[in-house]
Write a structure and sequence with these properties.
Elements (H helix, E strand, L loop, with lengths): L2 H18 L5 H5 L5 E10 L8 E4 L4 E6 L4 E6 L4 E6 L5 E7 L4 E6 L4 E6 L4 E6 L7 E4 L4 E6 L3 E6 L4 E7 L7 E4 L4 E6 L4 E6 L4 E7 L4 E9 L4 E8 L1 E7 L5 E6 L4 E7 L4 E6 L3 E6 L5 E6 L6 E5 L4 E6 L7 E8 L3
Antiparallel strand pairs: 1-28, 2-3, 3-4, 4-5, 6-7, 7-8, 8-9, 10-11, 11-12, 12-13, 14-15, 15-16, 16-17, 18-19, 19-20, 20-21, 22-23, 23-24, 24-25, 26-27, 27-28
Length: 336
């Protein structure tokens, strides 16, 4: 029995251990190819605590995983289904931005408010101190800028070349998920403490509008649907998918959804919406009429995810529970 066979068997055993911890019926429901099928499981190894957001390098087929409770970032080789490297010495990493042109990773740290910078194969590092609670990160690939939400209410604009903060955009509370519409020069920001959605003019570095949330609270994940000119927002109280008109913030609809949502993605090819929830499920909606299509079990607390159009897969982060190790659950959408 050679080393390759041994490694393959160890990976299979680890995957089976994770799958056995999932709620009853997960295999049967996930194997239904109507919407999502559980394709494989990637063990993350000895990772403790909560797992936060992820980013991708589609060209090199790598997945970056913010292992918040472990103070690390895992770098996953997607074709090999294995950890390539683990970045250590972080301080509650939350958001990750990846700049493709320079192969540079920007990691926002909640505990010390820093943005750590890692470039190239040797992961040469740098650091920008924002102040406190550096959270979600987004990358404007065209402008070579990284935008990070942080503190009691601001977006920091970081220039990739100089690795310095070049602007700060004030908000009325700590920003949670936000999305960039680079063609329109806009950013849409969830500000749950203010019970608002903020609209930012990126070239002007200023907030130009605020939208009310219709009484729904705890607006965390967000996605943009440019085709329908809609802003999609998940609320935790009550658990609802809110759909807003991108042009004026009018509420199009609110529909029931899973609890403790933390990530939301649009599969534009199939016109579907995927919502990952800490309740241990993925909710799937029709992006045309917002009809609920399916609820796929995952694992308790698995509320962060990433849909990568280039690999056509939804990656869900499952934290370690008891004797079951942390893992990435890889879901393949149907080919329709």
């Amino acid at each position: 029995m050679g080393p390759a066979w041994t490694n393959q068997m160890l990976s299979l055993l680890a995957a089976c251990t994770v799958l056995s911890s999932m709620p009853a019926g997960v295999m049967a429901q996930s194997s239904d190819p109507t919407y999502l099928q559980l394709e494989t499981t990637i063990p993350l190894g000895n990772v403790r605590g909560r797992i936060d957001h992820m980013a991708a390098d589609p060209e090199r087929r790598r997945l970056f995983v913010a292992e918040l409770g472990n103070d690390t970032v895992g770098i996953v080789d997607l074709p090999l289904h294995a950890i390539l490297k683990r970045l250590t010495g972080l301080s509650e990493p939350q958001g990750i931005g990846y700049l493709r042109s320079t192969d540079t990773l920007f990691v926002a740290n909640g505990s010390d408010g820093s943005v750590r910078i890692y470039q190239g194969a040797d992961c040469a590092s740098g650091r920008i101190n924002l102040g406190s609670d550096a959270d979600n990160a987004r990358v404007d690939q065209a402008q070579q800028q990284i935008i990070v939400g942080y503190g009691s209410g601001a977006l920091a604009v970081i220039d990739a070349a100089t690795r310095g903060k070049i602007a700060e955009i004030a908000l009325h509370g700590h920003p949670e998920s936000f999305q960039l519409d680079v063609d329109a020069g806009r950013a849409y920001v969830n500000v749950p403490n203010a019970r608002r959605i903020a609209v930012i003019d990126l070239p002007a570095r200023a907030q130009i509008a605020t939208w009310t949330t219709g009484g729904a609270l705890a607006n965390f994940p967000m996605a943009l649907d440019g085709q329908s000119k809609r802003v999609l927002v998940m609320f935790r109280n009550p658990a609802k998918l809110g759909v807003f008109d991108m042009r004026d913030g009018a509420i199009v609809t609110m529909v029931d959804a899973c609890g403790d949502a933390d990530d939301l993605f649009l599969d534009n090819k199939r016109r579907r919406i995927y919502v990952s929830c800490g309740a241990g499920v993925i909710d799937i909606f029709d992006a045309q009429n917002y009809r609920h299509l399916s609820r796929i079990p995952t694992a308790s607390g698995a509320r962060t995810s990433l849909f990568i159009a280039e690999t056509d897969r939804l990656y869900v982060a499952a934290r370690a529970t008891g004797a079951n190790p942390a893992a990435i659950l890889v879901f393949r959408p149907s080919s329709d």
